[in-house]
From TrEMBL:
Keyword presence, S-adenosyl-L-methionine: yes
Swiss-Prot/TrEMBL keywords: Methyltransferase, S-adenosyl-L-methionine, Transferase
GO molecular function list: rRNA (adenine-N6,N6-)-dimethyltransferase activity
Protein name as catalogued: 16S ribosomal RNA methyltransferase KsgA/Dim1 family protein
Cross-referenced Gene3D superfamilies: Vaccinia Virus protein VP39
Amino acid sequence: MSDTTAYPNLLTRLWRYVVLFVRCPDDIASLAPSSAFLTRKLAGLPCVQNAKHIVELGPGDGGVTRDLLEAMSPQARLLAIELLPDLVEVLQSINDDRLIVEHADACELASLVETHHLKPVDVVVSGIPFSILDREPATQIIEAIYDSLTPGGTFVAYQVRDEINGLALKRFGEPEITWVPWNLPPVRLFQWTKPG
Ligand SMILES: C[S@@+](CC[C@H](N)C(=O)[O-])C[C@H]1O[C@@H](n2cnc3c(N)ncnc32)[C@H](O)[C@@H]1O
């Protein structure tokens, strides 16, 4: 089911991020992929292990994606939505039939979830840089996440800055926030549960 043999080494991964950061800093928004500490923390969340349908926004080169796949049940499915074609190519090399990779903008979340019959979604994991996005698309993405989630479903976002808090407050209320220092740069993990 899952084949992790093709995992690129850390230097290759770092180099790819640096090149992409030079080319499109506002999209990649990071000089390094998420640390194993962060990816394991995300994958270790009980909501991930119990989920049937997971959506990942901004999967990058798939560090979080691979750990989510390791943690997910064999029947679960994961839709990964990535904007940059170079990274989509890397994601497509992950050999796991539970994974659907879409080269798209996270703004297309609602229609992609419908297309792949993943509604209602149990968990949305997001690495996209909400602090850099314009307000209109950022709000549109938050609305689509809220609408896609099942009541009791979880929205998890790892972010350097806290703009997302203001964006999500109206829909989701106050998040649970955990500090993750062992990442470059350190991030905060914001977690919301859809009421209901
Ligand atoms: C901070 S990187 C995180 C990458 C990866 N998840 C990790 O943990 O290493 C942000 C990722 O979000 C992607 N991204 C940024 N804006 C996006 C958008 N509007 N829709 C989809 N992906 C987006 C970037 O291309 C990049 O892969």
